[in-house]
Amino acid sequence: MILLYDGSFEGFLSLIYEIYYKKLKPINIYKSLPNEIIFDEIKDIKTDEENYKKVLEAIKTKFAKNILEKILNIFMCDSKDFEMALLEYIVLGFKDAKQLNNINNSCVFYLNSLEKELFKNVHKMYAFIRFEELDDGSLYAKLECKFNVVYFLAKHFIKRFNNQNFIIHDINSKLAFIKIDDNYSLQEVAFFEEPNKSQNEDKFQKLWKSFFTGVTIKERINPKLQTQLVPLIYRTYMTEFFNERT
Amino acid sequence: MKTDIYEKMEILANSAKYDVSCSSSGVETNFKKGEIGATHTSGICHTFTPDGRCVSLLKVLLTNICIYDCAYCINRVSNDIPRAVFSPRELADITINFYKRNYIEGLFLSSGIVKTEDHTMTLMLKALKILRYEYKFNGYIHVKLIPGSSMELVEQIVKLANRVSSNIELPSDKSLKLLAPNKTKEKVLQPLKFARDLSLAKEQKPIGMSTQLIIGATPESDRDILKLSSALYDKALLKRVYYSAYIPVNDNKNLPSIITKPPLLREHRLYQADWLLRFYDFSWDEIVTDEFPNLDEDLDPKAFWALNNLKYFPMEINTASKEELLRIPGIGARGVMKIINARRFKRLTFNDLKKLKISIKKAMYFITCNKEFQRQVPFYRENLRLALIKPEPKKLIQPSLFDTSSITGEL
Question: I want to staple B149 with a disulfide (CB 3.0 to 4.6 A). Which of A141, B109, B117, B317 is the partner?
């Protein structure tokens, strides 16, 4: 049997409810139907508030606190098919919560590694995201990442730019986090126009490039090492690499 | 001729580039509402230059004008190079604007000596004050203290900075006398000792401090260098010692010739050894001995130590203590944590290690897993050494018709 759900955390918990109470045995779980022929029975599971709250309550009482956090983090890795592993993980936990620390178990190891990969991506974005100053003085950054990292970045930059207004725009997920004074919001961005930059923006971009050139030691040049440390995929929005693209 | 601000930036970044330290780590998050800037405990590298070095801080000199004449230094007074100066305000403005764009974690401020030591430190302090008080900047600031400046100034700088440092550069007084006649080791370390005593007197957590040693400009052995580093760590004086492969910038009869290549591999091995001192509980005289005063270039220092101490091996990974596991070549702190976590649930085999994604390429010669042991290589020093440094099979390169001839240069 193939199960379908809406890709949300709540949807997944509703699905777990159904699996337990209807004794379903899924061979795969999808967020949306793949482009291949499926010969199995397909069951579409609707998110149900009452059901997912029951499961959530069970997770909260049976599992250690950090486990729920881990499960929530896994949902930020939306480009990966983690569903079967997560199902196995939760079933394992309901049997014996201690086993969730047993990294010899492949689903535990997989989810731990996936979470680590998420944090690695988040850290890279902390480092490589670049803001530009707009004509109203606010800061604007565009990003593309394989995972859903806007939430983490927002938390990070609220601390850093506490007296600034800023926008973090995730191009792939079409989401933008906006901070204006003490108001925070996450908004969907259907379409957008390139905003106007402030007068000073070009000057500081150019200064940054001068610094980047000046600080390089020619005798030690090692482009392979550089590419390993800043993979090309991150360079799209990085000021210091702008002139390298033609 | 007046230099514009972009040229100035290039000159002053270029003059600061031989300072290795760029860490922005080790400070707990300290954000304040309504202000700007916060540090990140693990530090953040914001980009990497074409030489593969991380950029975490805006590393510049306030000025590269200097009254000193140190033989190894590019900014010495007798060198004919373009000079430039930032005003404290100019520098503070650039720092804040770079920070807002997420280019940097903060500022690494150093300077050549203009007029006097105290005059230079006063200018640096001014930049710090603008950043901290006027811009309410809480990001990372690292200041190179100027040896020979007054204690009152050091005290004020220490109050505002996250880390201070002072570079010894040359590992012995003899070398210092030869190449940097205006400096002695005592004079270089004196502001750091003073900063430490300041925080001890106030029973505060001491401010993070670091220094830098140049590798390969003078004849000291790795043993001399690691002994010195170890002493500096033991006295709780320093958090980090950086090593910098000497790149010839000046022609001097007391220095390696200008065509010498920087000893990058030696530098790398020294960092590995330094890690063993700080995180793996090794002592310097285990890593470098009278018999082998220099690190082996073919082997990392841990593998080298293991080969000379085969009596501790092979180690059974299911029963060895954490401290013992940390001594296995090729297994790092993360690997050790994984092993300890996993073996609580079962006795581990080689296959389990593979599943836990622990590399056993080097470690396999030194461990038993549930009494199982590799059998390809006999357990003797020379055999193991050969197995460890066995070169990867070379890729065959098929010559192309259109390659340039290396002899004639013709197509």
Answer: B117
For A54-119, what is the HEC assignment? HHHHHHHHHCCHHHHHHHHHHCCCCCCCCHHHHHHHHHHHHHCHHHHHCCCCHHHHHHHHHHHHHH
Within an 8 Å CB–CB cutoff, is residue A208 touching chain B?
Answer: yes
Q: Which of A110-119, B29-38, B85-94, B377-386 has the lowest mean pLDDT?
A: B29-38
Q: How far apart are CA A30 and CA A40, in angstroms?
A: 13
Alpha-carbon span A113 to B52, nearest angstrom? 27
Are the beta carbons of A109 and B341 separated by less than 8 Å?
A: no
Kindly report, residue by residue over A39-86, the tens digit of the pLDDT.
888 889 899 999 999 999 999 999 998 999 999 999 999 889 999 999
Helix (H) or strand (E) holding B267: helix B264-279
What are the residue ranges spanned by the domains of chain A?
A: 2-120, 125-244
CA-only gyration radius of chain A, Å: 22
Measured between CA atoms, how close is A74 to chain B, in angstroms?
A: 19
DSSP B328: S
Q: CB-based contacts of B94: which residues, under 8 Å, 6+ apart?
A: A204, A207, B9, B58, B86
Q: Please choose, from the candidates A10, A141, A134, A135, the residue with its C-alpha nearest in 3D space to the C-alpha of residue A72.
A: A10
Pairwise CA distance, residues B332 & B326, whole Å: 7
Q: Is the distance from CB of B161 to CB of B143 less than 8 angstroms?
A: yes
CA–CA dist B18, B267 (Å, integer) = 14
pLDDT tens for A13-42 read: 999 999 998 888 899 999 888 777 778 888
- Contacts with B58 from chain A: Cβ below 8 Å: 211
Residues of chain B positioned with their CB less than 8 A from the CB of A240: 47
Dihedral (CA of A74, A80, A85, A90) sign? positive
Q: Does A211 touch chain B (CB under 8 A)?
A: yes
- Alpha-carbon separation of residue B342 from A63, A113, B314, B339 (angstroms): 19, 14, 20, 5
Which letter does DSSP use for residue B134 in this model?
I
User: Alpha carbon of A96 to those of A101, B135, B315: distances in Å?
Assistant: 10, 54, 32
CA-based radius of gyration for chain B: 25
How far is residue A17's CA from residue B120's CA, in Å, rounded to a whole number?
70
For helices B151-160 and B185-201, what crossing angle results, to 10°?
Answer: 60
Q: CB under 8 Å, gap of 24 or more: what pairs does B334-340 form?
A: B335/B359, B338/A103
Show the beta-strand stretches assigned E in chain A.
2-4, 28-30, 42-44, 131-133, 139-143, 166-170, 175-180, 183-188
CA distance B226 to B288: 8
Q: Report ipTM (2 d.p.).
A: 0.92
pLDDT (tens digit, 9 = 90+) per residue, B236-257?
Answer: 678 889 998 888 887 777 777 7
Q: Determine contact: A232 vs chain B, CB below 8 A.
A: no
Percent helix, strand and coil across chain A, each to the nearest 5: 50, 15, 35
